[in-house]
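Hi F.,

I've been meaning to write this up properly since the lab meeting, where we talked about keeping a consistent format for the predictions we share between groups. The idea is simple: the sequence comes first, exactly as it goes in, then the structure tokens exactly as they come out, then a line or two of notes. No screenshots and no reformatting. I'm using this chain as the first example so we have something concrete to point to.
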Amino acid sequence: MSEQTQQTEQEEVVSEEQAPKGFLGKVDNFFGVKKSGSNFRTEIVAGLTTFMAMVYILMVNAGMFQLVIGGDDPYGAAYIATAIGAIVGTLLMAFLAKMPLAQASGMGVNAFIVYTLVLGGTGLSYANCMVFTLLDGVIFLILTTTGLRQKIFEAIPAGVRHAIPVGIGLFIAFIGMQNAGIIVSNASLNADGSINPGTLVGFVSFNVLSDANTYGGMIVPFVALVGVIAIAIMTKKNVKGAILWGILGTAVLYYALAGLGCAWNDAACVSLFESISLSNPFNAFAAWGKDSVGVVFYEGFDFSAYLGTAGNNAGTLVVLIITTALSLCMIDMFDTIGTLYGACSKGNLLDENGTPINMNKMMLSDAIATCTGAIAGTSTVTTFVESSSGVAAGGKTGFTALVTGVCFIIAMFLSPIAQLIPSCATATALIWVGVLMMTSVTKIDWSDAAEAIVAFLTFIVMVLGYSISKGIGIGIIAYIIVCVCTGKVKEVSIPTWVIGIVFLATFLLT
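Output, unedited:
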């Protein structure tokens, strides 16, 4: 027997000894852990890494939706709804797609629903928006199963596609800065009682000599800015879960500075500590059962508040439903596709054509999770870009997603602790996500005046117009006009014309 043959046999024996037996063996066969070149230890570490990188969504999303849900404990209801969406979406990735990615309520869409649709004076309710979210999931499900998803994706001009994440990032960062009091309104009253809008917004004043500025008021924007910089530093140093540590560190700093404020009896600081209380974690489940889950069915189709608003009628409602569901679906689709390509490329999880493996199953998981999330009471559930951190840590199979999903199940019972996180701390995550989403601006061909104006109008209207859907609509309409006026009308596809006409009707009729 040759030395090479003996070595091969020894390697086979070692391989057999290392192969999991019994229940673990069945788990290994199902997920293909060993076959992928990974192992359970690596998959567990990867799953924990992904969870640490994206758990902030539970606090951030709950902080947003508590503004619109209502009831005795809107934060708790939103927290549980967000957790349910994350658990279902991530476990679908684990058992259906068998991929090392995780899902949760997407950043950007949540802001669109809360700040544009509900708080934007449209007359729409939280329950109405869950109907739109459910429609988004159903449309996404149909597009995925029929293959039309690719046709819709191709119908959106490149300039608009590249500008969407930029606009959403700026929009989210703007909201974060407002929540933290970094960007404030500088409107004032004139002598005759009329409102002077000034420049509409301005940077917060840190003038310690001004009587208008209090210690308790200034620590909120201060710690938020410190938190964002801290996240950037930790990210630069490759610290795992930098966003989560940034949120927690900012919260600690906030309470420490507020504690100092109590020493000299600052009213805001004293009031803060007097309002702190820890509730039973099951109260959040009760609030969720009462005010969130199923609201899409028993309140969602009541559009009386919208129809009661001046200028609204059945026709404008139909157009609004179509354009809103379309906007949600496009945002979800672009976000998911971009995340899947980005995350899978980091882990060499692409096929010979450069497409993520199990692409359709991952998209199907996304669509089903969005439908489930709408029923649970949260916004569109999508694959999180933070999943890339788990892939980078070595995650290759659905077992990574299973570990992340189990972590979300445990976190679901920690809502009272999460509720102690101040808004200035969660604002750091919003601002930092805005930073991350700005990378797409490099994909825009700024040397091409046609693409530049389309992209610019898309994201500038999103931010200054405080509406993601209007930014997308303006971008598509601008693209059509530019093509018509430059002799490139043949480049405008029929689906693009249809989408543009629908958005034009929205601007003219709603």
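Notes:
The radius of gyration is 25 Å.
Confidence is low (pLDDT under 50) at residues 7-17.

If this format works for you, I'll send the rest the same way.

G.
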